[in-house]
Structure formats: C-alpha cells, structure tokens
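Write out the 3D structure for:
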Amino acid sequence: MSTTPLPFVDEHSVIIHADTGRVWAALHTALDRSFSGVAAIAYAHAVGCADTSASGPRPLAEGSSIPGFHVIATEPNSLLALTGRHRFSTYALTLRIDESPTGRSRLRAETRASFPGLFGRAYRTLVIATGAHAIGLRRFLSGIRAAAERAARSPRPSPSAPLRSQEL
C-alpha cells in the first residue's frame, strides 16, 4: 500500500455510556462477529479482497486480519487501524475511542478510500453515493454502543470479594 494518504470518504461517531475498556472489548467482538459470517467471507472472495479469512491473534493486533481488512496499528482502548484492498478500491478504516472525564466514551470511525478506474468509480457510486456505506457503518457503531452499554450495566465481580463455598 502506498504511503500517500487515501482520500477522505467520511467519519461517523457515537457517544457511548461506558468506559474505553468496555468499548474496546465490544469493538473487537463486533468486528470478529460481523466479518466471520458466510456472507462477509463470500463478499470478500467475490470482490477479490486481499484478506479473505480471519487470522492472527485475538483480540486483534498488528498483523491480524478479518475478511476484507488487515490490522496495521493498534493502541489498546484507543486506536484500531485497518486497511484493505480489492479489485475496485483500496481503503482504510480507522477506529478511535476518546475518553471523557464523565466515564463516557466517543467511538469514531473514519473511512478513507480510492476507487481507481471505471469500475472503481461505478463501485464508489454503488457503495458510497447511495448511502449504503454510511448506513452500514452507523448500524455497526450502534451495535457496539449497545454491547458496551449492556456490559457497563452488568456488575463486574470484585477481585477482592470473598468467594462463597457452595453447600452440598
């Protein structure tokens, strides 16, 4: 991939009533779940993605992949940068989690992409100009918000809490 930044496509964000650790965990679960299905793998093969299967360590780390994406950078609880390419596009998705002093987090997803050639322009029209990309990304972010907020509401067991023995 070139060192020249790809053209900006869009950025979407969501405020989440959960700490960055819970958002980070929900993000990883959502990525693995969203891109491990038969439809995602079939799509990755159909458009000729460079990465067509999940590989590497979990949680996602530099060098890991999911269908359509390769992890190029990660900073726990803060940044996950993915890139990919297929016949019609070269793209990057950068996910950032910003911490708030109130215990909330903001999850941002920035998309950059180039669409070379006639077929690339047609693909851009099909995916970006129709709004399909934005709808899918907003749905993805909303799912992460729901999972992280659900986790924030459920109490974590205290590591210092005494263990109770069960009576037989």
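The helical segments are 20-34, 38-46, 117-129, 132-153.
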